[in-house]
Amino acid sequence: MSLGLPRQLAGILLPLTCLLAFALNGWAGDPVDDFVNPYLTEHKIPGCAIMVRDHGKVFTKGYGKANLECDVDVTPQTLFQSASVGKQFTATAVMLLVEERKLSLDDPVSKHLDVPKTWAGIKVKHLLTHTSGLGDYPDWITYKENYDERELLNMIKKQPLSFKPGERFNYSNLGYVTLGIIIHKVSHELYGDLLQKRVFDRLGMKHTRIISEEDIIANRAAGYVLDKNGAQKNQEWVSPTFNTTADGTLYFTVEDLAKWDEALDAQKLLSPASFEQMWTPFKPENECESRYGFGWFICNLNSGHRLLWHDGRWQGFSAYIARYPDDHVTVVALCNLRDAKTGYIAERIASFYAPALESPAQLKTQTR
């Protein structure tokens, strides 16, 4: 005699069981939709793409609009600007050249570029860790100037150093712009071209690329800002100069960043020793907002969990990646509103997958 469920009850429970399984392993019915959809509406964010990688399983989804004028939805294939999240790729390019012995972390910048005597103590590692004494773009920059690489470097060289190299942390977009120029000088390839061949193509990141306003690029999101009255407006025009520098000028999708995260877990492209250097803070005693490795902030949360993260804001976009290596969880939030709190969005979503990860988001305000 069978002890199975009555046929009528089984007919009810089986669909419920399938729905529960989908809710636990996908997006339907889980807290992500319930959080993201009203959050976008409340904060006037046109659209966001979300990626979660949980113990190797990848979930991606688009929310809202990639383009308001054309009424185009965000999908996992939508391209967003990287802003400063792109710095980790610049750091990877540097480490590829270091492993090939074309560059050393202890090389003075003056070995590769014609720089002022005041830069004598600045080494490549100082540029990577924002400890060079260089700062951000000067106030007079409008981002509409169209410099060539030589003119860009001349502008950087005119900026005074704010402290002795290695002395302390000061977030520096100019340091990463300088790294891009060094990469070009050493490899004879523009940093974006080197990344395309050595990183993106190798990892199957089919859509990630350097920004171009000239090229026709499928699935490119439009960037937006809010004016003083809270109305959505198109981003302002930026010259090609400031969309090709190595401080964060890439397009990528959440699907490509899932491949990137998988490569980081597997430690592809670089040796374990190189990754260890990238993920070790130059100043271990610093707080989360200034414990910086090479292209990554490194934070030990109050809960005892480790967080590798980076954010970025630029030209109508906001991006954030949060990696919790001890918990095997990574969350990416890409939004097409400059002031979107993508750090809060990503860390809130991480807490849905592992409640112990809930923590105040590292919400920063760098230009990139």
Q: How would you sum up this structure, described in words?
A:
It is a single chain. The chain is of the alpha+beta class and 368 residues long. The chain is built from ten helices and twelve strands. A hairpin with a 5-residue loop joins strand 6 (224-226) and strand 7 (232-234).
Provide the structure class. Answer: alpha+beta
Count of alpha/pi helices? 10
Strand portion:
15-25%
Helix content: 25-40%
Q: What spatial form do the alpha-carbon principal axes imply?
A: globular
Gist of the model:
The chain has 10 helices and 12 strands. The chain is of the alpha+beta class and 368 residues long.
Question: What secondary-structure arrangement, pairings included, does this model have?
Answer:
Blueprint lengths: L6 H19 L5 H12 L4 E8 L2 E11 L4 E2 L6 E2 L5 H13 L24 H5 L20 H9 L15 H15 L3 H13 L5 E2 L13 E3 L5 E3 L15 E3 L1 H13 L5 H7 L18 E4 L5 E9 L2 E8 L4 E7 L6 H12 L15
Antiparallel strand pairs: 1-2, 1-12, 2-3, 4-8, 5-8, 6-7, 9-10, 10-11, 11-12
Helix pairs in contact: 3-6
Task: State the main characteristics.
disordered C terminus, alpha+beta, globular, 12 strands, 368 residues, three-stranded antiparallel beta sheet, 17% strand, seven-stranded antiparallel beta sheet, 32% helix, disordered N terminus
